[in-house]
Design a protein that fits this description.
The protein is mainly alpha-helical. It has helices at residues 2-28, 33-67, 75-108, 116-145. It has one domain (2-145). The longest helix has 35 residues, at 33-67. It starts with a helix and ends with a helix.
């Protein structure tokens, strides 16, 4: 049971951390309004992985803690949980609404070049996406290295 749960937990982590890390890189590659609309369409579909994966990640993580009788005794684990929750809130609560606004702006534009307001919206999302990337990297390092504090 523990082994299968761990595999599910790892797949969920890949879904969440992979999308948190790669979606901003893909989005920033848009050079035209058409490219941006296409990228936003694809990344909105990938957002489902973040939501489902995030839920599965937290639930399987808690379940694994209880099976292993770890509880909340390990500092690296507590920090990983906290950073994972902050990552999910950052993606769902901060990045996603701004991405929807960006998609709305992109859908209203007909020109080939990215307009100034679209560029500004992309620049405003960028620090939050960088934060999500750093959080995903920190969680990955904590889960792999399991440092003793």
């Amino acid at each position: 049971m523990y082994g299968w749960l761990l595999v599910l937990h790892i797949f969920a982590a890949v879904a969440v951390i992979g999308s948190a890390f790669m979606v901003p890189i893909i989005r920033r590659s848009a050079k035209t309004t058409d490219q941006l609309r296409f990228i936003l369409d694809i990344t909105s579909k990938l957002a489902l992985f973040t939501k489902i994966g995030g839920t599965v990640l937290v639930l399987t993580g808690i379940w694994l803690m209880f099976i292993a009788k770890m509880g909340l005794t390990e500092m690296w684990l507590n920090l990983s949980i906290l950073l994972s929750l902050i990552l999910i809130v950052t993606i769902v609560g901060l990045i996603e609404p701004r991405t929807k606004r960006l998609a709305q702006l992109a859908s209203e534009r007909q020109g080939h070049e990215l307009s100034a307001d679209v560029g500004l919206a992309m620049r405003r999302i960028s620090p939050m996406e960088t934060t999500a990337q750093l959080l995903s990297l920190a969680v990955t390092v904590l889960m792999v290295i399991k440092p003793m504090f």
